[in-house]
Amino acid sequence: MTIPTSSDLAHYRVTFFFGPEAVEHRPDHVRCVFNVKKRSWKGGVQVAVDVAQDHLVRARERIGYPAWLAELLQRVGQMDHDEVTRRADDLFVQAFCACALNLALHTGLEQENQVIAAEAFGAELDRIIDEQPEQLTERIRLELDLEDISDAYIKEGETTAKSEGV
Q1: How many domains does the chain have?
Q2: Fewest Cβ atoms nearer than 10 Å: which of 12, 46, 63, 112?
Q3: Which residue from 75, 72, 83 is spatially nearest to 136, judged by alpha carbons?
Q4: Residue 115 domain-assigned?
Q5: Could you give the CA distance from residue 158 to residue 121 in angstroms, rounded to a whole number?
Q6: Which residue(s) pair with 51 in the sheet?
Q7: Rounded to an integer, what distance in angstroms lies between the CA atom of residue 109 and that of residue 52?
Protein backbone atom coordinates (compact mmCIF):
# COMPACT_ATOMS: atom_id res chain seq x y z
CA MET A 1 0.00 0.00 0.00
CA THR A 2 1.30 3.44 -0.85
CA ILE A 3 1.35 6.29 1.60
CA PRO A 4 -1.73 8.38 0.85
CA THR A 5 -1.27 11.89 -0.43
CA SER A 6 -3.43 14.78 0.61
CA SER A 7 -5.10 14.73 -2.82
CA ASP A 8 -6.32 11.18 -2.11
CA LEU A 9 -8.00 12.50 1.03
CA ALA A 10 -9.55 15.61 -0.53
CA HIS A 11 -12.97 13.98 -0.65
CA TYR A 12 -13.09 13.77 3.14
CA ARG A 13 -13.36 16.37 5.84
CA VAL A 14 -11.86 15.08 9.07
CA THR A 15 -12.18 16.77 12.43
CA PHE A 16 -10.47 15.53 15.56
CA PHE A 17 -13.13 14.87 18.20
CA PHE A 18 -11.38 13.56 21.34
CA GLY A 19 -8.61 11.40 22.74
CA PRO A 20 -6.37 9.81 23.49
CA GLU A 21 -8.24 7.89 26.12
CA ALA A 22 -8.01 4.36 27.43
CA VAL A 23 -9.92 1.68 25.55
CA GLU A 24 -12.44 -0.04 27.77
CA HIS A 25 -11.39 -3.63 28.57
CA ARG A 26 -8.02 -3.05 26.83
CA PRO A 27 -5.66 -1.25 29.23
CA ASP A 28 -2.81 -1.71 26.73
CA HIS A 29 -4.64 0.35 24.06
CA VAL A 30 -5.64 3.98 23.64
CA ARG A 31 -8.19 5.52 21.29
CA CYS A 32 -8.76 8.77 19.43
CA VAL A 33 -12.09 9.60 17.82
CA PHE A 34 -12.56 11.63 14.65
CA ASN A 35 -15.61 13.00 12.86
CA VAL A 36 -15.42 12.09 9.18
CA LYS A 37 -17.58 13.50 6.41
CA LYS A 38 -17.27 12.57 2.76
CA ARG A 39 -18.56 15.00 0.13
CA SER A 40 -21.05 12.48 -1.21
CA TRP A 41 -22.46 11.61 2.24
CA LYS A 42 -25.50 13.36 3.70
CA GLY A 43 -23.93 13.27 7.16
CA GLY A 44 -20.72 12.44 8.93
CA VAL A 45 -19.69 9.47 11.01
CA GLN A 46 -17.50 8.94 14.02
CA VAL A 47 -14.41 6.84 13.48
CA ALA A 48 -12.49 5.62 16.51
CA VAL A 49 -8.88 4.64 15.97
CA ASP A 50 -7.32 2.26 18.46
CA VAL A 51 -3.59 1.90 18.91
CA ALA A 52 -1.55 -0.44 21.10
CA GLN A 53 0.71 1.21 23.65
CA ASP A 54 3.65 -0.98 22.59
CA HIS A 55 3.27 0.20 18.96
CA LEU A 56 3.44 3.80 20.20
CA VAL A 57 6.58 3.02 22.20
CA ARG A 58 8.24 1.45 19.16
CA ALA A 59 7.18 4.38 16.97
CA ARG A 60 8.67 6.90 19.41
CA GLU A 61 11.94 4.97 19.45
CA ARG A 62 12.08 4.60 15.66
CA ILE A 63 11.77 8.32 14.99
CA GLY A 64 13.94 9.41 17.91
CA TYR A 65 11.00 11.19 19.53
CA PRO A 66 12.58 11.70 22.98
CA ALA A 67 15.62 13.48 21.52
CA TRP A 68 13.45 15.45 19.07
CA LEU A 69 11.16 16.60 21.89
CA ALA A 70 14.11 17.45 24.15
CA GLU A 71 15.50 19.68 21.39
CA LEU A 72 12.14 21.43 21.00
CA LEU A 73 11.82 21.88 24.75
CA GLN A 74 15.01 23.93 24.75
CA ARG A 75 12.92 26.61 23.04
CA VAL A 76 10.29 26.88 25.78
CA GLY A 77 10.59 28.20 29.30
CA GLN A 78 11.71 25.75 31.98
CA MET A 79 8.39 26.12 33.83
CA ASP A 80 6.49 24.99 30.72
CA HIS A 81 8.45 21.76 30.13
CA ASP A 82 6.08 19.41 31.99
CA GLU A 83 2.97 20.87 30.41
CA VAL A 84 4.46 20.90 26.90
CA THR A 85 5.73 17.32 27.34
CA ARG A 86 2.29 16.08 28.39
CA ARG A 87 0.63 17.94 25.53
CA ALA A 88 3.24 16.70 23.03
CA ASP A 89 2.70 13.11 24.16
CA ASP A 90 -1.06 13.44 23.61
CA LEU A 91 -0.43 15.05 20.23
CA PHE A 92 1.90 12.19 19.28
CA VAL A 93 -0.89 9.69 19.88
CA GLN A 94 -3.37 11.88 17.99
CA ALA A 95 -0.98 12.20 15.05
CA PHE A 96 -0.35 8.45 15.02
CA CYS A 97 -4.10 7.78 15.04
CA ALA A 98 -4.60 10.37 12.28
CA CYS A 99 -2.05 8.51 10.13
CA ALA A 100 -4.00 5.27 10.66
CA LEU A 101 -7.24 7.07 9.81
CA ASN A 102 -5.68 8.48 6.62
CA LEU A 103 -4.71 4.96 5.59
CA ALA A 104 -8.29 3.81 6.21
CA LEU A 105 -9.66 6.74 4.21
CA HIS A 106 -7.33 5.85 1.38
CA THR A 107 -8.89 2.38 1.21
CA GLY A 108 -12.41 3.81 1.60
CA LEU A 109 -14.80 3.95 4.52
CA GLU A 110 -18.43 2.97 4.81
CA GLN A 111 -20.80 5.66 6.01
CA GLU A 112 -21.20 4.22 9.49
CA ASN A 113 -19.68 4.77 12.91
CA GLN A 114 -16.77 2.39 13.28
CA VAL A 115 -13.59 1.43 15.07
CA ILE A 116 -10.29 0.93 13.28
CA ALA A 117 -8.58 -1.83 15.23
CA ALA A 118 -5.06 -1.39 16.54
CA GLU A 119 -3.94 -4.30 14.39
CA ALA A 120 -5.05 -2.61 11.17
CA PHE A 121 -2.36 -0.97 9.04
CA GLY A 122 0.53 -2.00 11.31
CA ALA A 123 3.05 -2.49 8.53
CA GLU A 124 1.86 0.63 6.69
CA LEU A 125 2.18 2.74 9.84
CA ASP A 126 5.69 1.42 10.42
CA ARG A 127 6.57 2.41 6.87
CA ILE A 128 5.25 5.94 7.41
CA ILE A 129 7.26 6.18 10.62
CA ASP A 130 10.41 5.11 8.77
CA GLU A 131 9.91 7.10 5.57
CA GLN A 132 7.95 10.17 6.68
CA PRO A 133 8.35 10.73 10.43
CA GLU A 134 7.50 14.39 9.88
CA GLN A 135 3.87 13.30 9.45
CA LEU A 136 3.96 12.85 13.21
CA THR A 137 6.46 15.46 14.33
CA GLU A 138 5.19 18.35 12.19
CA ARG A 139 1.67 17.98 13.56
CA ILE A 140 3.04 18.20 17.08
CA ARG A 141 5.36 21.11 16.38
CA LEU A 142 2.66 23.11 14.62
CA GLU A 143 0.04 22.44 17.29
CA LEU A 144 2.46 23.53 20.01
CA ASP A 145 3.43 26.54 17.90
CA LEU A 146 7.12 25.72 18.32
CA GLU A 147 9.88 26.72 15.95
CA ASP A 148 11.20 24.07 13.61
CA ILE A 149 14.56 22.82 14.87
CA SER A 150 16.15 23.11 11.42
CA ASP A 151 14.79 26.68 11.11
CA ALA A 152 16.39 27.55 14.44
CA TYR A 153 19.74 26.20 13.29
CA ILE A 154 19.49 28.18 10.05
CA LYS A 155 18.62 31.36 11.94
CA GLU A 156 21.49 30.81 14.37
CA GLY A 157 23.85 30.22 11.44
CA GLU A 158 22.59 33.33 9.66
CA THR A 159 23.07 35.39 12.81
CA THR A 160 26.58 34.02 13.28
CA ALA A 161 27.42 34.63 9.63
CA LYS A 162 26.10 38.21 9.80
CA SER A 163 28.05 38.99 12.96
CA GLU A 164 31.21 37.61 11.37
CA GLY A 165 30.65 39.74 8.28
CA VAL A 166 30.04 36.80 5.97
Answers
A1: 1
A2: 112
A3: 72
A4: yes
A5: 42
A6: 30
A7: 22
- The answer to whether the beta carbons of residues 85 and 64 sit under 8 Å apart is no
Residues 6+ apart with CB under 8 A from 81: 73
Q: What pLDDT score was predicted for residue 50?
A: 98
Q: Report the amino acid identity of residue 90.
A: D
Task: With beta carbons less than 8 A apart as the criterion, state whether 54 and 73 touch.
Answer: no
In a domain, 127, yes or no: yes
Q: d(Cα 60, Cα 129) in Å, to the nearest integer? A: 9
Q: Which amino acid is at 15?
A: T
CA 152/CA 147 separation, integer angstroms: 7
13/63 Cα distance (integer angstroms): 28
Residue 88 lies in a domain: yes
Q: Which amino acid is at 164?
A: E
Mean pLDDT of 76-98: 91
Chain mean pLDDT for the chain: 85
What is the average pLDDT across 144-161?
A: 52
Whether the CB-CB separation of 85 and 71 falls below 8 Å is answered with no
Domain contains 1? no
Closest CA to 89 of 139, 145, 148: 139
The span from the CA of 48 to the CA of 101, in Å, is 9
